[in-house]
Design goal:
It is a single chain. The longest helix has 19 residues. The termini are far apart. Strands 2, 3, 4, 6, 7, 8, 9, 11 and 12 form a nine-stranded mixed beta sheet that branches. By secondary structure, the chain is mainly beta. The protein is built from five helices and 37 strands. 46% of the residues are buried. It is globular and about 70 Å long.
Length: 545
């Protein structure tokens, strides 16, 4: 072998050794994720504390993955490691870390599943909840006592969609925003009050977050009956209505309020309270890296003049819907509708648990220019569908997961005290109305159940409900859950997979209830309607004490 060939071979071997030393056979690169929880305060609900017990978090690279699919990675706590926290204490920018240094392979992820412990009964309370003296894993405290907070289809997780990039150079710091003022719905099972979580969660990358601060005038801040809610809004993709990006309320009795975290960008701020005029501050610019104490966009002092209200209710199907009440400013000021009020309907009834209050007076509108500078406000009357100014004009629109929006319904003070019908929503194309069928059996006949409810749940969010009371005293009775968004064999609809959460109770003792499982596995039944209707989705009712 000549010298040049020998030198080439030696260089080749050295290159191989160098590549091996640099990790040619090492494990894939990893990064870390930190997750905190925060909340918008509950103003009108009468809620003092909201306890949830967090069990795990999983990530997936595909936005189409179902909880039963492979390749979910993340962290699940052991039974003695769960974290119980009070969401009602996490407002005004306060946060609590629940997952720290979760290790993931680097790359882009499209889905997160947040797992909260199921709310079963007093005999099955996690150690972290028991240590706080709670009666349930998830619990609501009010002036009248403690009540369970039901987490629909808890074993399959609460879904958050988005784009989450994990790299090895810096941890990904996320904040998950609950909204207990809107997403916790009071229900009544006979004489037993309890609550359901209908989570429309938001998620923020803290590396890109900013802040907005402000305060309302002292006289308004002292009005405890106003139940203030403030919203940061931006136009939707086609500029037809505004979308709320963040809710907040007063942080203390001085009138101060804070939006944090909030993504950078330009926002209009809607401030409203009962028997107060709605106030809109336009063009507030939020910069990344600002916090409530450093560099926040400051609105200064915002007056909240007194006004008058009227009250309405709505009815809509499916009962997993929520209703937004919009107002339009004159086109010369702004043609894009503002969301002023929002409420989930009660999944048991398809209507609000109680009437919602709407302002019957004009609005106050002003433009933001510089942090802390006084804003000049002027009175503006909202316009109706003929573009004529008319105080108290709203448009009610119902939405539900996987359904088309309802046709806007004009609402005015002439509707005071009425229940307004928003009709039945249609599954969004390419979905078609599909049906899940099966039987309900009793694990122990003679339970004495005479009431029952089945919830179709997707990603932790209630889609619709079915009254199955007639089957509680009829073991083997057949149910038929219709108008769920699904597909056909020729046109599959990917998201059409639902957890079927089923409750049964007795009128005489509503606090004792039964829960439906599939094949006695203690797992909830699942309806896969991607390829059309499904039958034989049977479940067993198991009594919990």
């Amino acid at each position: 072998m000549n010298r040049s060939r020998l030198l080439f071979v030696l260089l080749f071997v050295l290159c191989l050794l160098f590549l091996a030393a640099c990790g040619g056979s090492s494990s894939p690169a990893t990064g870390t994720v930190q997750i905190r929880l925060t909340d918008a305060p509950a103003t009108e609900s009468g809620i003092d504390n909201v306890w949830i017990t967090v069990r795990g978090v999983l990530f997936h690279r595909l936005d189409t993955a179902e909880p039963e699919d492979a390749d979910w990675i993340g962290k699940r706590f052991a039974d003695n490691e769960t974290v119980t926290l009070n969401l009602a204490r996490l407002s005004g920018g306060a946060m609590q870390t629940v997952f720290d240094n979760v290790s993931l392979p680097t790359g882009r992820y499209r889905q997160i599943l947040l797992f909260v412990e199921p709310t079963r009964g007093r005999d099955n309370v996690a150690a972290s909840a028991r240590a706080l003296g709670l009666h349930f894993n998830n619990q609501v405290d009010t002036a009248t006592g403690q009540a369970p907070l039901r987490i629909p289809d808890a074993l399959r997780g609460i879904r958050l969609a988005g784009t989450f990039d994990v790299n090895k150079s810096a941890p990904l710091r996320l904040a998950i925003d609950f909204d207990i003022g809107h997403d916790i719905v009071r229900i009544a099972r006979g004489t037993a009050d309890e609550y359901l979580l209908k989570p429309l969660l938001r998620i923020f990358d803290l590396a890109r977050a900013g802040a907005i601060t402000g305060r309302i005038d002292a006289a308004a801040a002292s009005d405890n009956a106003a139940f203030y809610v403030f919203k940061a809004e931006q136009p939707n993709a086609d500029n037809t209505f505004r979308v709320v990006r963040r809710f907040t309320s007063l942080t203390d009795n001085t009138g101060r309020f804070v939006f944090y975290p909030i993504a950078p960008g330009k926002y209009d701020i809607v401030l409203r309270g009962r028997n107060r005029k709605t106030v809109i501050v336009k063009g507030v610019n939020v910069l990344a890296g600002t916090t409530p104490s450093v560099g926040a966009a400051d609105l200064g002092m915002v007056p909240m003049p007194t006004g008058t209200d009227f009250q309405v209710n709505t009815r809509v199907s499916p009962s997993g819907s929520w209703v937004s009440f919009y107002q339009y400013l004159p086109a010369g000021i702004d043609p894009i509708a503002y969301e002023v009020r929002f409420r989930h309907v009660n999944p048991f009834t398809g209507a609000f648990s109680d009437n919602i209050s709407l302002s019957a007076t004009n609005l106050r509108v002003g433009n933001w220019s510089t942090s802390g500078a006084a804003i000049a406000f002027s009175d503006v009357s909202p316009v109706d569908n003929t573009t004529a100014p008319l105080n108290g004009t709203f448009f009610a629109v119902a939405d539900a997961l996987l359904y088309d929006r309802s046709t806007p319904l004009q609402v005015t003070p002439l509707d005071n005290g009425n229940t307004l019908s928003l009709g039945t929503l249609i599954p969004s194309a390419p979905a078609v109305a599909s049906t899940a069928r099966g039987r309900i059996m009793m694990f122990a006949p003679g339970m004495g159940l005479d009431n029952g409810l089945m919830l179709a749940v997707r990603g932790g969010l209630i889609v619709d409900r079915l009254d199955v009371s007639g089957m509680m005293g009829n073991p083997g009775g057949a149910y038929q859950f219709a108008n769920l968004p699904g597909g056909t064999v020729l046109s599959p609809f990917n998201p059409g997979v639902y957890g079927l959460e089923t409750f049964g109770w007795t009128s005489a003792t509503p606090a004792t209830f039964a829960v439906g499982f599939r094949n006695l596995t203690l797992l909830p039944p699942v309806a896969n309607l991607r390829f059309g209707d499904r039958g034989n989705i049977d479940l067993w009712m198991v009594l919990l004490r």
